[in-house]
């Protein structure tokens, strides 16, 4: 949590102008393991044995312990129902961050206002949800459930409603209330861990983004609009997946599990800070009604991607599209076209009195 908002009071959170790289995210214990590998040994056999032990401890990639996502199959809270945020700690004490605080502190400076007056598109910030917006994770999750059912000797349900619960409800609720697969108390933890492992194995094979996303990001990059991607995945897995899909150069900020956000709305607020944009100037791209609600709780605009949910469940979004190919930069301007300082505020209706009728007189000249 502290990592995401270490400089909010100055209203100039750092923006990553260079492409993110997975090489910069090294595990905590990798340096110790490298040092132990450099020790001289009296025989070649001892050196090989030591290297073998180190490679086993580091996992299949050899540069850190295996990373298993633990917050994938969890139904997260929406958050910011009353505009509340979260706390970040500073040397002078804890600092409470909420929606109003960020909208007030992240005001544009004098030079920024001049620049945004000439190039208004740069004043916006785009926040993309990872699931089903950047990557098609529905197939990854269903494939993980199918493999788990095969390993446990269970039948995979074909009912659409049950599959929907498997995608969006928590794994514990599905295993305990829907599928009834666990038989003992320790079975629940074992099945949840194995499900996360299977999902991570599928994630390593992911190499294609959602259709039309790359062209949309090209247009947004040409307009110099900063972008962020948010997810409950760990940062390293996110960076590596973005590199495989060829999207790493388009995102200036990443909000991942290490940022310690407890809800969907908190993750959006953290992305706004990293982009150095007011929440009221950000646009969230989501496919879930819960994410759209979280965006509106943060005073952000929401663009819904129809697919995982039908259009009638996404009516609360400011704009709903079937694909990124339907979007253009002008759509972003139209989202904020009628939004001013007093837009949607309660105001009294002013009833103007009709002016008195003028009496017609005839001028007489004597």
Please describe what this structure looks like.
By secondary structure, the chain is of the alpha/beta class. Among the domains are: 179 residues, HAD superfamily/HAD-like (Rossmann fold, 3-Layer(aba) Sandwich); 67 residues. Helix content is 39%, strand content 10%. It is built from 13 helices and 8 strands. It has a 6-stranded parallel β-sheet, with helices on both faces. Strand 6, helix 12 and strand 7 form a beta-alpha-beta unit. Helix 5 crosses helix 8. It starts with 29 loop residues before the first helix and ends in a 31-residue tail after the last helix.
Summarize the structure.
The chain has 13 helices and eight strands. By secondary structure, the chain is an alpha/beta fold. Among the domains are: 86-135 and 207-335, Rossmann fold (3-Layer(aba) Sandwich); 137-203.
The topology string of helices and strands comes to: HHEEHHEHHHHHEHEHEHEEH
Indicate the proportion of strand residues: 5-15%
Low-confidence stretches: 1-18, 21-66, 340-349
Helix/strand structural class? alpha/beta
CATH superfamily of the domain at 86-135 and 207-335, by name, is HAD superfamily/HAD-like
Order of adjacent strands in the largest pleated sheet: 5-4-3-6-7-8
Which bin fits the share of residues in helices?
25-40%
**What is the CA–CA distance across the termini?**
91 Å
- CA gyration radius, whole angstroms: 26 Å
Please report the number of helical segments. Answer: 13
CATH level 3 topology of the domain at 86-135 and 207-335: Rossmann fold
- CATH architectural group of the domain at 86-135 and 207-335: 3-Layer(aba) Sandwich
Number of distinct beta strands:
8
- CATH top level assignment of the domain at 86-135 and 207-335: Alpha Beta
Q: What is the molecular shape? A: globular
Task: Give the mean pLDDT.
Answer: 74
State the major sheet. Answer: 6 strands, parallel
